[in-house]
Amino acid sequence: MLKPILLLLVSCVIIHTIYASGGRTLQGRIISAETGLPLAATVSVTSGNGLVINLDGEHEYVYYLGKKRWYVDGTFNVTTKEDSLYIEIRHGLETYPINELIYLSDSVSKVKEFRLKRWIHMAKMGYYSGDSHAHFLETSSAHLQMRAEDLHVVNLLTSDFTYDIEKFTGKLDKVSTQDHLVYVGQEIRDWQMGHICLLGLKKIIQPYAPFGGHLISMGSNPNILLSPILKEAKEQNATSVWAHFSNLPGLESAIAIPLGLIDALELMTYDDPIKLPSHWTPWDYSGMSQIEFTVMRGMDLYYQYLNAGFRLPITAGSDKMGDNIPVGSNRHYVYLKGEATYDKWVEGLKSGQGFISNGPMLTFSIDDHLSGETIIFEGEKTVKVRVEAKSLLPFGRLEIIVNGKVVEWKILPDYWNKRDIYSLDIEVDVTLSESAWIAGRVTSQNTPGILPRNLTVFAHSNPVYFLQNEESVYVEKSVEYLKTYQKAVRNWIELFSNFGSKAEKDETWMYLEKAERALIIRQ
Questions:
Q1: What is the pLDDT of residues 73-86, one digit of tens each?
Q2: Which domains are present in the chain?
Q3: Overall pTM surpassing 0.90 (yes/no)
């Protein structure tokens, strides 16, 4: 009996102090409308005239959609002299945000319950979201933030610039819970060859050395050949992902992909897949003109590999390195059956299941087949392709892609008009007379970049593969382009590379020659 009385007295003292200073307090409680349980979320608070109001106490925060947002674990307090507050609460991409004006003038302290309601539940449909690429987070912070962002898996990556190798344990981090899984992997970087993310590592790849190559703003080091590192990762049964492919496709991707050393590409990470990459090294040092060797967007370069018969999945990550982007802002929804574990999520990534997104939820199927499946057929085959996009964020258009070409699309009308959910769907018959891959995507070329790093709203399914008489997809122009890419690599090695020794340079020649042969046999 004594404890409740003491708590009441303490509360009275706090309220009296606030009143004496002219302040008012809002006590917010965030719960799930479906379960009634407390829910982690991000909270943005502004005054009536648009000033940012800080929450009481210490909280981590992030900037998203033009606002500073505080991470809270179910409850928050705001003390202010304002008589009204605008509150915005978000819980990832699958839950309706709350935007509410709260009046405080009628009382010193106000308790308010906020009930967050889902508009879709992807996990109940078998799709579990993950971020393939994040940095500079304590594992405990990662767990809170991924709960607030409604994210199932996060891959934290230690690297030469993060100075946090002690986080690496070679297993699922101890902060992990059934619905929120944290694993520390490794990123290895060369500014000309490319960057790679190694997921599910059991041992750190040595040497744990500074980045390779040269970048004007960061200095210069000898180049690093990545292929032997990728082979070592495979010996650990780790998953090798080409990092931020749309930002830095790198020179060695034209070696590692044909040799089967890359399990997936991060198509959406730092740069927008529908824009040209930031790092033009393969083209700048190619020794060829733009007519001979044209720069491609990350999305289009990815299609060249699919058109050359490589079954190459895509994934997505935030490359989070600070408070300018939420963990899971770019994410991969992997379709899983049964219990969702980290190992199953990574295996689903490697199998090409599900879709990537920074907002839209894609439902994609062909007849009864889902992303990652391969179907063998003879003669001619007509298939029914269904794709639907639903999103909290406005987007441009929904498209169906066959061997890199748009075969059907719909434009979202009046996307600038505010709606609770933006939605489009397509159902169309496609007749195949040769081997093909088919995917669905959302692009927003003519809409503003409202997301962090000025990204446009984007989503892309992994392909479904249809192989006529079991023959791989083959588009001659794509194979010729990749051969030109390898020619650019050859020119760079000869004229511009800076490996630490002649032996390393000779080893690079050896890997390139193997990759050239791997591409030739596709013809």
A1: 999 999 998 888 99
A2: 17-116 (2.60.40.2190), 120-357+477-523 (3.20.20.140), 359-474 (2.60.40)
A3: yes
